[in-house]
Specification:
253 residues, Peroxisomal Thiolase, Chain A, domain 1, five-stranded mixed beta sheet, two-stranded antiparallel sheet, Beta-ketoacyl synthase, N-terminal domain, Thiolase-like, acyltransferase activity, transferring groups other than amino-acyl groups
């Protein structure tokens, strides 16, 4: 598979990096047939998270990448203190945010659960407890290339010795009315904006420092393409993270 990179991540990692694990998830039922990470529409429920599929899809994709948190063979192992997590998204959990706002406008009692899960990193906090991760934890939003920016941030965390490995999570849920309206307006105004996935989607890459003598890998931005088009066009801007797992590990994510 041949890939090329586009800005802003059209560069090499600062030092050799290794992709130790990867997973992608497209829970679209029959529509996901033939798509990397295709799965049934049902997602395992996560205690304490309601209504939105944002947190459940992050949870499912991370577990798929890292392995069972109760197993000694999961990819975090004893490296929890030296493991960082970066979550990238364009619009975030719009279902939770808009539901909470609508309830407030209607004069209804505010839900503590919605307040809790409206924080994008709340699901990461849930996962860090399961895996014993105590390294840096952050999230970012970017208009054109959240995936590429997440890879750049992960590279920086490794280079600064803030962590020995970084779990990079890209996630976007199906655009609701507000997100679709914003996306349409930006597109009509000819703003540079990343493509949205067909529906709910997540991609996870576990990036580590690589040993001396390892080949330097290119930073794969979300705009990664092949001669025939995007590596996984159904994933929109997440296609670069899907490609990172498939190309750099040499296996399907």
């Amino acid at each position: 598979m041949t890939a090329r990179t586009n800005t802003p991540a059209a560069a090499d990692f600062v030092r050799p990096r290794a992709v130790a694990g990867a997973a992608c998830l497209a829970p679209w039922g029959e529509r996901a047939e033939g798509v990397p990470g295709g799965a049934s529409e049902e997602l395992p429920k996560v205690v304490g998270f309601v209504l939105s599929r944002f947190s459940p899809i992050v949870n499912a994709a991370v577990v798929e990448c890292l392995g069972d948190p109760t197993s000694e063979d999961n990819l975090v192992g004893q490296a929890g203190p030296r493991t960082a997590m970066v979550l990238a998204t364009m619009y975030g959990d719009t279902v939770t945010g808009d539901t909470a706002t609508a309830r407030m406008v209607d004069g209804k009692v505010h839900s503590p659960l919605l307040f809790f899960q409206s924080v994008t990193t709340s699901i990461l906090g849930h996962l860090t407890k399961k895996y014993g991760i105590t390294g840096p934890l952050t999230s970012l939003s970017h208009l054109t290339d959240p995936g590429g920016q997440a890879l750049l941030l992960a590279d920086s965390l490794l280079e600064s010795d803030a962590a020995d490995q970084v779990v990079i999570v890209g996630v976007e849920t199906a655009a609701n009315e507000r997100a679709a309206s914003v996306q349409q307006r930006l597109t009509e105004d000819q703003e540079q904006v990343g493509a949205l996935p067909v529906s709910d989607a997540a991609a996870v890459v576990l990036l580590r420092k690589a040993g001396q003598g390892s080949e330097r890998l290119p930073l794969l931005a979300s705009a990664v393409t092949e001669p025939d088009g995007a590596a996984a066009p159904e994933y929109g801007w997440l296609s670069g993270l899907v490609a990172a797992g498939r190309v750099q590990t040499g296996v399907a994510a």
